Amino acid sequence: MTTQYEGRGPSRQTLTRRQLISRSFAATAGMIVGAGFVAAPDAAWAYEATALKPETMATLIRMARDIYPHDRIADEFYVIAVKGYDTPEAAPGIEAGIAALNAAAEGAGHANYLAIGWEDDRVALLRAMENSAFFQQIRGGLVTGLYNQKAVWPLFGYEGESFSQGGYLHRGFDDINWL
């Protein structure tokens, strides 16, 4: 559906419904943050936040990508890795941790963590807080939350556990041909 908006003067702007909706939400760090949700601009994924603010969830996703950066892994896998923090029990601590991260970003001259364009600048903020309980909670949760997803294993060349297939000994463990 295309809608035409007539303003004063001879110019006319034609927008599709999708363009109108996408322009009405704030695009943040490659994500669209709307009322209660975070989504990809290409609509490949969306997540409806329940206990966390959508801006907090978007920051958490960006933080996860900055802690464990993999260009070959799509944001949707990072969303899966951090969605366990979107609970009423975890929300107060996560909101406080993200508020501290945003305060550090403001102290460095940025509006918030998501407004920092350079990955190196975001990583510097994360390094400054890496000994905090909040950072360690997120980092520790990402180890299993991200890397235990069977859908990402092929991206790393990991075939999964081998016990059910007889172990590694006769499944490529002994195929070292470069020695």
From TrEMBL:
InterPro entries: TAT_signal. The chain crosses the membrane at residues 20-40. Keywords: Membrane, Transmembrane, Transmembrane helix. This is Twin-arginine translocation pathway signal. It comes from Pseudogemmobacter humi.
